[in-house]
Amino acid sequence: CVPFGVCEPCPDDALHEPFCQPFGNRRLLHCNVAEPASSHNTVAHSLLGTDSGTHEHEAGETLAWESCGRVVVKERVDFYEFIVCNAFFAIIAVALTYLRLKRLEQRKSRQVAARITRAR
After folding, report:
1. Are the C-beta atoms of residues 2 and 63 closer than 8 Å to each other?
2. Where are its TM segments located (predicted)?
3. Fewer Cβ atoms within 10 A, N terminus or C terminus of the chain?
4. Which residues pair with residue 61 across a beta bridge?
5. pLDDT digits (tens, 9 = 90+) for 19-67
């Protein structure tokens, strides 16, 4: 079997398949089978996903899927999404803390002013 293409995310309906474990990614394989009636041929056909017909292959080759590692582009996008969300929450938290601090300062100033006017 020869890997063909890059790792791609498994579709939702194939996530339970063994070739989508452990990361939920798969890579297309082109396998040359010496005996057309071998059990390996049957296994390879059973591993095909629903979109196997979209790939071109030579006669005598069997298409199958293999498990592969993480998809770097997807992981990078997920990482930057995580950073942006955390930055957004941090900005909101800092803004709310600043507003709360200003309100407390105003309240304290009014209390001090009220004490000064009562003391006279």
Report:
1. no
2. 79-101
3. C
4. 32
5. 888 888 899 888 887 655 544 443 444 445 545 445 555 666 788 888 8
Q: Which amino acid is at 61?
A: E
Which residues pair with residue 3 across a beta bridge?
29
Is residue 48 within 8 Å of residue 29, measured between CB atoms? no
pTM score of the predicted model: 0.53
Contact 49, 77 (CB under 8 A): no
CA pair distance 30, 57, nearest whole angstrom: 7
Tokens, residue 103: 């309100």
Give the strands of the sheet with 61-67, arranged side by side. 2-9, 25-32, 61-67
Residue type, 118: R
For the chain, domain boundaries:
2-67, 72-120
Cβ–Cβ < 8 Å for 62, 31: yes
Alpha helices (H) along the chain: 39-46, 72-119
Residue 119: strand, helix, or coil = helix
